[in-house]
Amino acid sequence: MQYRVEGIVIRSMDYGEGNKIINVLTRTNGKVGIIVRGAKKTKSRHGSLAQLFTHGEFLFFRNSGLGTLTHGEIIESHHLLRERLELAAYASYAAELTDRALQEDESSGYIFEQLKACMAAYAEGKDAAIITQLYEMRILEVMGYGPVFDACVSCGNVVGSMSLSAHSGGVLCSRCGYKDSFAQPLGDGALKLLRLFRRMDLRRLGSIQVKEETKGELKRAMRLLVDANLGLTLKSRSFLDQMDKFPL
């Protein structure tokens, strides 16, 4: 059967001497695997479509298992995300997180739009760390792990200091903090931003400026939530951690 889909390449790997297999997050058909024959050859018609982060239209044939690309058109190459090391690192993390979190053929229209907006925000020079945390929140939401920040998840209290309990799925107030000895205290600024992140659509993102101290809190908070709920070991995140230790 022939399929025509709009999608973003979230994984690209060599297959045989001259071919590639790509995983594409599509707007309408979930995540699909496609063989791009001859993609590694210099004069390949479809080599550029097999590159990571490429947003395009893909026409492929599939009965079962992997599809085979027959034609395609690039909508946005996102070459800048491959050329600049820092952007490549963040975009690779967003792509790998998407690939690992979503199942084959799982409904993906909303997260496709969020990933598309995420890649565009990277390319536009917006704060890559904040963009990434916003996208992590969208992934948690889609996977059914959207955290509760507006009130204590234990007693419903909405006033006073709060700490993040990743295993409880949200924040605990000072009276309930004893229920999780690993809960991370949250400053007022970080808590306000997490509440904003929970509601924010990446397609409507304006300019965001965050203090370095607060950015550190946000990163730790999102790391706790992603690890507790998804439990994924991602090579791209390890590289991001190395970049933090040795800034460019």
UniProtKB/TrEMBL annotation:
UniProt-listed Gene3D superfamilies: Nucleic acid-binding proteins, Recombination protein O, C-terminal domain
What is the protein name stated in its UniProt record? DNA repair protein RecO
Q: What family is reported? A: Belongs to the RecO family.
- What positions does the domain DNA replication/recombination mediator RecO N-terminal occupy? 1-77
Keywords in alphabetical order, please.
DNA damage, DNA recombination, DNA repair
Q: Name one Pfam family in it.
A: RecO_N
Quote the gene name from the UniProt entry.
recO
SUPFAM superfamilies linked to this entry: ArfGap/RecO-like zinc finger, Nucleic acid-binding proteins
The record ties this protein, via NCBIfam families, to: reco (TIGR00613)
Per its UniProt record, what InterPro entries does this chain match? ARFGAP/RecO, DNA_rep/recomb_RecO_N, NA-bd_OB-fold, RecO, RecO_C
Stated role: Involved in DNA repair and RecF pathway recombination.
User: Native species of this protein?
Assistant: Paenibacillus plantiphilus
